[in-house]
Amino acid sequence: MSSSAEVLHDRVEPYAVGHDLQLREPGRPLDGMVNAVGIGDVNLVWVRYGGGGVIVDTPPVEAEFAMCAPQAPMDVEYRRSGRKDVAGGLLVLSQDEGMRMSPHPLLGCLVMSTSTDRLTRHLAAFLGRPDRAPLEIRPDEGEAIMPAPLVERTWRHVCHILDEIAADGPPHPLLGRALEESLLNAVLLGLPHSAADALTQPPRDRRRHHLAGFIEDWVRAHHAEPIGVTDIAAAAGIGVRQLQAVCRAEWGVTPVQFLRDVRLDHARAALLAAEPKPGAVAAIATAAGYLHKSRFATHYRERFGESPSQTLASRTHASRRN
């Protein structure tokens, strides 16, 4: 709980997307509260700002995915087009247009965020074939496969489970994976997106390899260490050739590419949350498991279409994008 907009902002942002706050009634203290949790690559946040309320400015989320469920009708303005709306249900933040939102001061808002890359990989694992094209969420185009309430109901169900076990500490990794997959499934089924047609086709008759979950969890837990393909194979108790077959079948990439993608995903999340300052890129590259900054920069640009420095600077320039 805090009366400071800066404290509330800093508590929310690592679990949501880059944003700025403006007091709706300058001089009136807030009475805010934040409850946030990360489940795998999915973050859930409940925030209530209190006081006279705030205006939340967000830049285009680009390669991130974020949506909110305001607990009361919320005024929304799209910065580039000038379009205004009132959100009474789920609201997906725009990937290419900044937004300005005014959540209810007392009832607050739920926020869920992940990356479009994580959704893309989850979809590919289900379909049984690689799909390297970034997923595009299209809330105003086409129809979802299932009714939109599925998303919020799943979201609330996950929150209920987490509340029930909160006293026992973090959820067991197996439960965490199941909850994360439930949220990702709900998004892919309950929102219109660029791969909806693929999901309407019968999935390939293929079971997920029994070691796929272990491999993914192990790599994510050890990605910052100087590990390689032989280390991953040894941890899984298989040979390198079998590891290559599993990675190709499950994610459509080689083990080296899979490890690289995990490191780059973690690095991007860190860059988006970091303050621009000298040495930040090098420190984040090292923390992600990269020993050579130039190689990190090359791989990063290939994957995300911009340099690490550009991503780091995006928070500073976010308010000028629109």
Report on the architecture of this protein:
By secondary structure, this protein is of the alpha+beta class. 43% of the residues lie in helices and 16% in strands. The strands form two sheets. Strands 1-4-9-6-7 form a five-stranded antiparallel β-sheet, covered by helices on one side. The longest helix has 19 residues, at 255-273. The model is unreliable at 317-322 (pLDDT under 50).
Question: Strands, helices and their partners?
Answer:
Blueprint: H1 5-12, E1 20-23, E2 33-39, E3 42-48, E4 54-58, E5 64-70, E6 74-78, E7 84-87, E8 91-92, E9 99-102, E10 109-115, H2 116-127, H3 149-165, H4 173-190, H5 196-200, H6 212-222, H7 229-236, H8 240-251, H9 255-273, H10 280-287, H11 293-304, H12 308-317
Antiparallel strand pairs: 1-4, 2-3, 3-10, 4-9, 5-8, 5-10, 6-7, 6-9
Helix pairs in contact: 3-4, 6-7, 9-11, 9-12
Approximate strand percentage: 15-25%
- Mean pLDDT comes to 86
Distance from first to last alpha carbon: 32 Å
Give the helices and strands as they follow along the chain. Answer: HEEEEEEEEEEHHHHHHHHHHH
Low-confidence stretches: 317-322
User: Overall 3D geometry?
Assistant: globular
Biggest β-sheet, characterized?
5 strands, antiparallel
Rg on CA atoms, Å: 20 Å
Helix content: 40-55%
Secondary structure: number of strands: 10
Structural class: alpha+beta
Strand order of the largest sheet: 1-4-9-6-7
Task: Jot down its keywords.
single chain, 322 residues, alpha+beta, five-stranded antiparallel sheet, 12 helices, 43% helix, 16% strand, globular, disordered C terminus
